[in-house]
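User: structure tokens for this one?
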Amino acid sequence: MILRGNYIRDLLSGDARSDVTVHGWVKTRRDSKDVCFVQLNDGSCPADLQVVISPANFDADLLRRVTTGACIRVNGQLASSPAAGQALELQAMEVKVIGEADPATYPLQKKGHTMEFLRDIGHLRTRSNTFGSVFRVRTSLAQAIHSFFHEEGFLYVHTPIITASDCEGAGAMFGVSTLDMLNVPRVNEGAQRGQVDFGQDFFGKPAYLTVSGQLEAEIFALAFTNVYTFGPTFRAENSNTPRHLAEFWMIEPEMAFCDLQDDMFFAEKFLKAIIARVMDECASDLEFFNKRIDNSVLQTLENVVNSVFEHITYTEAIALLEKSGQTWEFPVSWGSDLQSEHERYLTEQVFKKPVIVVDYPREIKAFYMRANDDGKTVRAMDVLAPRIGEIIGGSQREERHDVLLNRITEQGLDPASYWWYLELRKYGSAPHAGFGLGFERLMLYLTGMKNIRDVIPFPRTPGTAEF
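Assistant:
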């Protein structure tokens, strides 16, 4: 058994004391005539611990192996530091090199690195200052989400990653198959002759990686009232923008006996609560992002937590955009979807705070959203936030069997694939609502990072599936 010792995070927030043991990775080393200064980090906080080594007390061969990138264990005395910018330093009495690193080839040298370069060394970028902060915030955010729902009495549901239905009806799904792609079996007779014989596949039918756990979550909401999912989802869109991933994580609460107003209220409460918790737990990391990445991060987050969200209809939003006098890359008209430029104008120029837009045209929204009586709109809502645009999308779900069946048919989907979803409307149906929040999209918002590939450990994008 190897005892880890102390976290640098705890040491730096404590007092001077003797007999301290730390493990970590050497960030930099600086030598003078009588002393070596080693910056050590163990990932527990943004700050490094300065280790002071007197060469006279150590074997020269050992000290040659204490290089940038090496993993070491140090035992010594934590003492007040005379250097500016740090309260404590570790005066080494014992040093052990656990894992060596060749300083000539180690990629993370003491200089600035581009995000593109760091993506190419995804196995080492986690040791950099930026990505250390990214993944500490990611951990805090995930814990905040689970804690919030637990405190609100929600049931956590693990919805399937492999599915036979398309939640969004968009068709951008990854197929899951064990068929030999070089010798695909074909149907030999009947109307399906020549088509792929999925009856010989593992599941006996076409199967896909899920784009959402929402539909399955509704099963549980109509038995346990309040539930949520938090898991990976997949979109096979050939998009290389800074806002898209092929694999990402989604949070999707579903609530029975709720309408659109309840959904909006809960979405606002949820967003404020989890942002406030991360701001409290990761203050030093957010300060880093505010200083190094985007100097509006803290102000923007404080604005979300402290403001009352504005509520407008889609029709009102279109009217505001049409009379704005702005030149839009994507023209504005009733019936077109709002784009990021429109969403940011509303939140940053008009209202200067988060905005919830409701009652979207039914033609641009998914089949499961409850139809309004006007025959033109559905009870959908999007939460828009300054600096990023849409951050939450949700709706009241269609609980009426006949209306839902018509919506599925209208969108060219096969009702047989949704037989169980339709049956929920036959046996004890109830009004219910929910929303979806892209975990990585929220990470972009919290950190000010510019590319979604830099807030997930292992990005999956067109042409890229390393690790």
